[in-house]
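Input/output pair, single chain:
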Amino acid sequence: MRKVFVMTLLAIFAMASVAFAADLTIGVVDMQTVATTSEPAKAAKAQMEKKYGDEKKKLEDQGEKLRSKAEKLRDPKVSEEKKLAFLRQKQELDQKTRNFMRKVEQDEVKLRQEMVTLVFAATYEVAQRKKVNFVVDVTAGGVLYAEQSMDLTKDVLEEVNRQFAAKGGAKAEEPKADDKKAEEKKADDKK
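Output:
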């Protein structure tokens, strides 16, 4: 009797899950593609290059100069004073590089957060429009196969670009003139 009851219960759950699955619509999105090829991603990359490109180049040039000095310091005739001066310069460059990397990382984190918010909003809009109940990120590694008809990546990418353009596009991402002046003043004060 108990065995029949358990079998009946399992059959009911199996039928219920089949009925539930019949109404369930699943979509998949390649978030990596959206995050790297969308207009806001391209604008963010250009913004970071514009903001930090010159400083990065200067640090790289200073590093090259120090490397060439290091070659000359291998000569045993070089004084200890020159070796100490080189070490101070290297430590100073290392500190500048760490500070630079910290600034870049802070801005990248902020941009990534804004991008994630935008992508999630776009995914929600597309899912609502296409009446999708569940959306899975293909990049997360949980999806081994999905029919092409389930792929919402192109739609989400278009929606991200549309929402980005509606917010003013790259112009919305540009730092204000007052912010630029404050950053330049801060950089001059550190010198």
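DSSP finds seven helices and two strands in the chain. The chain has a mean pLDDT of 79.
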